[in-house]
Amino acid sequence: MSNSCLIPNTPHSFLPPHPLKTKMGDISFPNGNGKVHGNGNGHGNGNSYSQRKSCWYEEEIEENLRWCFALNSILHTGATQFQDIQLLDTKPFGKALVIDGKLQSAEIDEFIYHESLVHPPLLHHSNPKTIFIMGGGEGSTARELLRHKSVTKVVMCDIDEEVVEFCKSYLSVNTKAFCDPRLELIINDARAELVKREEKYDVIIGDLADPIEGGPCYQLYTKTFYELTVKPKLAEGGIFVTQVT
């Protein structure tokens, strides 16, 4: 599948009429008595408490530990063949991408994760030209890779086409990356794609969702996968890096 520069228009934001349940994260409308007052945009019934706390996102980090933050609105919520996705407009962090109930990245600070994932291996490599991204559907890893002038080809392989198209629509910060002719966008399982390709890569990057059991990325965090699939696809002096939970 070739990359496309067609970025669909973003639909208007909306809020559900009741709390939205995800696999691990909850969106609720607390006002002290369990009823909904306000619509998430600061327009409530005149009660200042309702206007301040009309919509919140909450996620369990571990037992006895949760975090939550206030929302301006819910831009999108839905489910693909592989995972649940939400895009939230949060008050403290801007747009935030949630997959399978776990926060993946937020507009205000996603650069910290993506710069840390991409630039150390590329700066360590003597002449990185060809890169393979496992996952990376939101486009931010590709964006950082394409800043390097030595890079001639970036293959981004994500299993979920709906997530990729969703991110193209909503995450305008990555529009330029999706339109870069050096980017080859493939919709496939990363393991299957690596196995069938003959070429080797200077850098392979795992930018995958967390290994939730039963999720699409669970088998891509194993020692067997790294040794038998990833390592043979590295060129001489090649580097493999992945995010870890």
What is the arithmetic mean of pLDDT? 80
Oligomer: single chain
Helix coverage percent of residues?
Answer: 10-25%
The geometry reads as: globular
Over all CA atoms, what is the radius of gyration? 20 Å
CATH superfamily of the largest domain, by name, is: Vaccinia Virus protein VP39
Largest sheet: 7 strands, antiparallel
Quantity of strands, as a count: 12
Which band does the percent of strand residues land in?
A: 25-35%
Protein name: thermospermine synthase
Keywords: Polyamine biosynthesis, Transferase
Catalytic activity: S-adenosyl 3-(methylsulfanyl)propylamine + spermidine = thermospermine + S-methyl-5'-thioadenosine + H(+)
Family: Belongs to the spermidine/spermine synthase family.
Could you provide a short overview of the structure?
By secondary structure, the chain is of the alpha/beta class.
What does this structure look like?
- The chain has seven helices and twelve strands.
- The protein is an alpha/beta fold and 245 residues long.
- The chain folds into two domains: 20-103, Spermidine Synthase, Chain: A, domain 2 (Roll), CATH 2.30.140; 110-242, Vaccinia Virus protein VP39 (Rossmann fold, 3-Layer(aba) Sandwich), CATH 3.40.50.
- The strands form two sheets. Strands 1-2-3-4-5-6-7 form a seven-stranded antiparallel β-sheet, with no helix packed on it. Strands 10-9-8-11-12 form a five-stranded parallel β-sheet, with helices on both faces.
- The chain is globular, with a radius of gyration of 20 Å.
- Its EC number is 2.5.1.79.
- Residues 54-245 form the PABS domain.
